[in-house]
Amino acid sequence: MAMDVMCEVANCVYNRKGKKCGADEIFVVSHKGNKASNSEETDCKTFEPGTL
To answer: Which of 4, 25, 40, 46 is the most buried (most CB within 10 A)?
Structure first.
């Protein structure tokens, strides 16, 4: 399992100093059911908007 999850979405409430994700869990989904061919076909459902 990855030790650090990096995120560059500045307005996510889980974004921590150094672009590290501070969420307890990460939920990533595919636009095409349960399979994806590349990263553009996925989204992070853990994202929650916050203030900058």
So the answer is: 46
Cα–Cα distances in angstroms (integers) from residue 18 to residues 10, 40, 42, in the given order:
11, 23, 23
Domains of the chain: total: 1
**Residues in Cβ contact with 35 at an 8 Å cutoff, skipping those fewer than 6 apart:** none
Count CB neighbours of 6 within 10 A. 10
Q: What is the pTM of this model?
A: 0.77
**Structural domain for 44, as ranges:** 1-52
Question: Is the Cβ–Cβ distance between 5 and 21 less than 8 Å?
Answer: yes
Residue 31: closest CA among 14, 21, 44, 49: 44
